[in-house]
Design a protein that fits this description.
Arc Repressor Mutant, subunit A, mainly alpha, 8 helices, about 60% helix
């Protein structure tokens, strides 16, 4: 029984479809391309994922590099099985949405447990963070080579840009509705229920 490919595994297989690389190079490339915004990337989890992909024969070691007195680095290449699994997983992910259970939805669901003014402040702080993300995404898109990088390689960033804009708009409207009392808010948040 084969394991389902995690988002990080998909990204690593896709990078190895470009060329042979060692894990540190994979890590550096993910970071330099800003793809750590799309998947959670930590060196430990990346090395573990590379080991798992090799165990599953989706990638294979093809050589060892040594530079100066640095440790040896094993280069990996994508196998035919790995290429097929990559294509199948990407196709699966494109077909149907997957509920990823974002934590922010839990916070929204339970926001009524906080006083109105506090929720407004927190939402404004959240909106400022989303604005900063939008600025980073815009800068990344502008610095991604513009017309030199084919658009097909940037569609995830375009999607991210549009979803973040929609999120920012929605959060601002929600904060405004709470502030203007267009959205009713409970008079007795949970902390008031503890009073004798």
């Amino acid at each position: 029984m084969s394991r389902q490919l995690t988002p990080l595994a998909v990204m690593l297989l896709a990078l190895l479809a470009e060329r042979e690389m060692h894990p540190y190079e994979l890590y550096q490339l993910l970071i330099s391309r800003g793809e750590d915004r799309l998947v959670k990337v930590r060196p430990g989890s990346l090395y573990h994922t590379v080991e798992r992909l090799a165990e599953d024969e989706l990638i294979k070691p093809v050589g060892v590099d040594r530079s100066g007195n640095r440790p040896e680095r094993t280069r990996y290449a994508l196998t035919e099985t790995g290429a097929r699994r990559l294509q199948a997983r990407v196709a699966d992910l494109l077909r149907a949405p997957v509920n990823e259970y974002p934590q922010f939805l839990v916070a929204l669901d339970e926001a009524h447990n906080l006083p109105r003014e506090e929720v407004i402040d927190h939402l404004r702080e959240y909106a400022a963070a989303v604005e900063a993300e939008l600025a980073e995404i815009t800068a990344a898109l502008e610095g991604a080579g513009g017309d030199t990088v084919p658009e097909a390689y940037r569609i995830s960033w375009d999607y991210l840009l549009h979803t973040k804009r929609a999120e920012l708009d929605w959060i601002r409207r929600l904060a405004y509705a709470i502030e203007t009392k267009d959205l009713e808010w409970p008079d007795f948040p949970i902390h008031d229920l503890r009073r004798p």
